[in-house]
Structure formats: C-alpha cells, structure tokens
Specification:
Layout (H helix, E strand, L loop, with lengths): L1 H11 L21 E3 L6 E3 H7 L6 H9 L8 H4 L7 H13 L8 E2 H13 L9 H14 L6 E2 L1 H16 L2 H5 L4 H14 L4 E3 H10 L26 H5 L1 H6 L9 E3 H14 L14
Antiparallel strand pairs: 1-2, 3-4, 5-6
Helix pairs in contact: 6-7, 10-14, 11-14
Keywords: Metal-binding, Zinc, Zinc-finger
Protein name: PHD finger protein 24
Pfam families: zf-RING_15
Length: about 290
C-alpha cells in the first residue's frame, strides 16, 4: 500500500519550476530586462537576442510584450520544432523533400501541399495516393497552417508540421513524453484538473483539451497585440473561449461515449499537440481531429 500511495503522490504532485537567473546568451544577470521562455527555463536580454539575430527590427517590442502575457513567448530553441529531430530523422525528412521535389525555404500553396502529400503517401512500398477523405483532411491542415488566409504557408510552418508527423510516426509514446518540459507538464496538469472534478475526465473533455492548446489570442485583446498560440486552460468568459464555442460543439461526444481518461492517459494523448503548440506562429501545426 505504501508503494502504491507513493506512486500516486508522484503522479498528483505538480512540480514548480524556477527560471534561470542569467541570460542564456551573455550569462549576465540583469533582472529588469530579462524575459523568460514559456517552454523552457531559459531567460534572455532583448539586446542579446537582437545582437544574435534572433529578433529583428521592431519585433523586439512584440516579443517582450508577448513574453509577459499569460500566453508567453517561446525562445528560438523551443520555437523551432525541427530541432526535436535526431540526425537520422532529419536525414529521412530531407530525403523525402528531395524525392517529392519540395524546394527548401519556399512557401507552399494548397496545390503544392496536396501534391507533396500525395507523393509522400506513395513513397516506399505503397503505390496508393491519398484517399478522398485524406485529401480533405490535408486541405483542412493547410487551412490551419494558413490562419490569415493568404493562400500559402510559410516554410517554417510547413517544416514544423512535417517534423511533428515524423515524430508521431517514428517515436514511441514514452520518447515523446520525455520531450516535454516541466513547464509544459505543469500547464497540462492544470488543464487536466480544470476539466474534471476527480482523478479522471471524460473522453470529450480530453478532446476539448487537444483543441485548447491552439486557441488564438484575438487581435483586440488588450494584453497582447500579437496572434499566438495559447497554451493551457482558458476561462469560459475569455474572448478566445467565446470565439470557439461553435468548434467546441463539434467536439461533444455522442451519448454512448463513456470512456474516461486518467492523468497518464491524458498526457499521452495530448503530448503531440502540446509540442505542436510551442511555435510562436499563429499557425496550427498539427490540427487535432474533429
């Protein structure tokens, strides 16, 4: 019984993380100008980020403002999902791009994106292209990667999406879980506790959480003028919650759905979407089903 209780307490415990005290670039402590990454514990001076080329022009003010909102800001390490890949995984992805004639650093139209997805589906031993349903799903993903409806998706957003698909395909679940930071686990735990009243939540609430990682801050929101991904639970009265009511209705289950999800299962089922919410881009890099 003691061992069981110990394990349960470990699961229930919410760790508290402390940010680093020195700038990751210059390793100097200047409290009044340091601002933190929302994913890892690194902190930065805006001047150091400018000098290293990680922020340019007028974007420094937006980064600083974003870093001090509830949403937060991802540093250049966490913003780049491509860095999660191993050397072998990166080689596999590059090889796929070459065989499918994708030009690096170029934006992609819907036609480009669908053609690539068809060609990628045919790689290996399969001669089948995407089904009609899969093509429709790919078109919905393209729209999620192009929230401003410009008719194309930027290369970093496309690369992040493809990196996530590769991680989903090649990594076992435990390997993906090890990629989460303490901050991300804290937010996930807060979301889980906000959804349910006990040790489990319903399947519908779990699916609701998968979408909640990508709710956007509206342009008129006073606290932030930049459209970025929101990570963690949102109050029902918030603009982001109100704007997504119709989407939430779609996620409601049928009366016959009765599966309940505990904390370990919740984290496993959300891990890829938590990782997908890291970039500062307004794009949804991996659209959940529904």
């Amino acid at each position: 019984m003691g061992v069981l209780m110990s394990k349960r307490q470990t699961v229930e415990q919410v760790q508290k993380v402390v940010n680093d005290e020195m700038c990751d670039v210059c390793e100097v402590w200047t409290a009044e100008s340091l601002f933190p990454c929302r994913v890892c514990t690194r902190v930065f001076h805006d001047g150091c980020l400018r000098r290293m080329g990680y922020i340019q022009g007028d974007s420094a003010a937006e980064v600083i403002e974003m870093a001090h909102t509830e949403t937060g800001w991802s540093c250049h390490y966490c913003d780049n999902l491509n860095l999660l890949l191993t050397e072998e995984e990166m080689y596999s992805l590059t090889e796929t791009f070459q065989q499918c004639k994708v030009i690096p650093d170029c934006s992609l139209t819907l036609e480009d994106f669908l053609r690539y997805r068809h060609q990628a589906a045919k790689r290996g031993d399969s001669d089948r292209a995407l089904s009609e349903e899969q093509e429709e799903q790919a078109a919905r993903q393209f729209a999620a990667l192009d929230p401003e409806h410009r008719g194309h998706i930027e290369w970093p957003d496309f690369l992040s999406h493809e990196s996530l698909l590769l991680l989903q395909q090649l990594r076992p679940q435990n390997s993906l879980l090890r990629l989460l930071t303490v901050k991300e686990r804290e937010r996930a735990r807060a979301t889980f506790l906000a959804q349910g009243n006990g040790s489990t939540i319903s399947e519908a609430e779990c699916r609701h959480a998968q979408h909640s990682w990508f709710r956007k801050s509206l342009p008129e929101t006073p606290s932030c003028s930049v459209s970025v991904s929101h990570v963690g639970p949102i109050a029902d009265s918030s603009p982001a919650s109100i704007s997504s009511k119709n989407q939430d209705k779609v996620l409601l289950p049928t009366e016959h759905e009765s599966r309940f999800v505990d904390w370990p299962a919740f984290l496993r089922e959300n891990v890829i979407y938590i990782l997908a919410a890291r970039p500062n881009s307004a794009a949804i890099h991996l659209k959940p089903p529904g």
